Amino acid sequence: MDFTIIAETNGDSLHPTTYQLIGAAASMGSNSTVICPNGVGASEAAKINGVEKVISANGDCFNIFDGGAWASAISSMCGEMILISASPNGREIGSRIAARKDIPIIQDVVSMTEGITVSRPIYSGKAMESLTISGSAVITLRPNAFEAALAENNAPINIVDQSADVRIAIQEAINKASERLDVTEADIIISGGRGMGTIENFSHLEEIADTVGAAVGASRAVVDEWGMPHRMQVGQTGKTVTPSLYIAVGISGAIQHLAGMRSSKYILAINKDPDAPIFGVADYGIVAAWEDAIPALKSALSDLQS
Amino acid sequence: MNIAVLLKQVPDTTAKITISNEKVDESSVSKWSMSPYDEYALESGLKLKEISGGNLIAITCGPERTKKMLTDAAAVGADTLVHIPNDGVTDSTHVQKLLAAAVKKFDSHVVLCGKQAADTNGGSTGPGVAELINAACVTLVSEVNFMEGKFTTIRPSNSGTEKVVVDGLSVFAFDKGSTELRRPNVRGIMMAKKKPIESITSSDLGVNLEASNVKMNSQDPPPEKPAGQKFEGAEYVNEVVSKLRNEANVI
Fold it and tell me: Per the CB 3.0–4.6 Å rule, which of A71, A152, A300, B228 could disulfide with A283?
């Protein structure tokens, strides 16, 4: 089986997901060709084990993200099986390539075995689906679901010039007001729900987040009713997250919320209601009011850092 | 302007998903709703129509039950209702072909849809349809404006957000925004009940679907987690923090 991997980048270097894409292909006993749009991360990709060759795809069409232009420039270089990150851009490029080649696309895969048989969450993780693919396909992989490949390789890099029609132009860049970590990128998330009482009380969660380098998340109720930004919402109509540690404070655990965070590696729930459904998915539960538990948590975590 | 809005009916996000015989049991779904992100696409379509005039075409591909969602769309202002009957097609590349053919049939100038459906969570439809109709596509938008013959929108970027302008035929895939969704009034609901739904089959659309290369083996409940450790009272915080460090190794 011949795997083509489209590298995921942070803008100027490889995103850790790229190592996982290559690791996933290697676990199927396959070497891979890695395509680096605009050449970003090409020399880094050449060092990753399991990479047979790197294609540095250069061209003006990669200066701005236009999924149509990128797919048009990349598609002809792809082999039979194409792996991409299930990030927003990855999903978009993957869908375009699949439609262009008239092959199926399977999004957000969390495991892959010989066959090829894959499994993926559906209904935001309320169920899992197992699929077998015969023939060519595009598969997007959920970040952090696969082992990363190590880097002790020295694969050749081919430079290819590409061009494509770009139909999207940036009129104005608006920078983020806060530099706070995004919930989809964070290794630790501390989220608050209606039990926090008021939106102002989130400052206590932010203090803890700053201590341990966590992102701050929120439940749907807090976003819809208190006007917290939607980008912070964890759950079925918000972000699906898979951090190492998810701390839920004053969140009862509505089914929509559980759908977005239940695949976190460890979950700590703090809630004053001992019967809150959040305790059903928590590895560690503390039945307490946040007013009592949060100051204690803050000082315990600060002690660890010092 | 012909504004096509692609809609999907899904189990309501509050609905419990039950599995029987290794398959999600659709008959046990207590409530079906318009997929939440599609609601934002529809709202933006209605706003575009108010600004530039035109015809809002609500299109869905699904079983008979999905017609009710089209009527709901009419109650808030959709003009033309299009139902593509589909009882067995699950391959998203196939669904995209049907939707793309319908979008072309109604001579659409712009296509709006949700960033992903709340059941399959894929996100393939918007960009896939864009590829098939040779359109530009911008995903994760929360509003779309039309000025001087061009569409502008705001999308997330690495450093925040960016305002982009798109040339020609365009597809916009919506995220949940801060926009308030309109609710139907009594008159809208009454009028919608009388609005005809056009049923257009794959053969009407000239789309010939081959067998999919993807076979569904099973659908299962998510893996059960072993019961966690529960402590009564804030005095246990220190103990739990040390477990997070020594048992779980996450801090």
Answer: B228
Q: Name the residue with tokens 């390539």.
A: A97
Degrees (nearest 5) of the Cα angle B166, B168, B173?
55
| Domain with B143 in it | 2-199
pLDDT (average), residues B178-198: 95
Q: Which of A9, A138, A167 to mutate to test the interface with B (most CBs of B within 10 A)?
A: A167
Q: What is the dihedral of CA B227, B233, B234, B235, to 10 degrees?
A: -100
Number of domains in chain B: 1
Nearest-neighbour CA in chain B from A283: distance (Å): 4
B210 falls within a domain: no
Contacts of B9 in chain A (CB under 8 A): none
CA distance B177 to chain A (A): 7
Q: What is the mean pLDDT of chain A?
A: 94
Domains of chain A with CATH codes: 3-161 (3.40.50.620), 188-305 (3.40.50.1220)
Residue to mutate among A9, A126, A272, with most B CBs inside 10 A, is A126
| List of E strands, chain A | 3-6, 32-37, 51-58, 81-85, 105-109, 111-113, 117-122, 127-133, 137-141, 157-161, 168-175, 188-192, 215-218, 245-249, 266-271, 284-287
Has residue B241 been placed in a domain? no
What is the ipTM score, two decimals?
A: 0.93
Q: Which residues of chain A have pLDDT under 70?
A: 177-179
Residue A3's closest CA among A33, A24, A29, A23?
A33
Closest-CA distance, B122 to chain A, in angstroms, reads 5
Chains A and B: how many Cβ contacts under 8 Å?
277
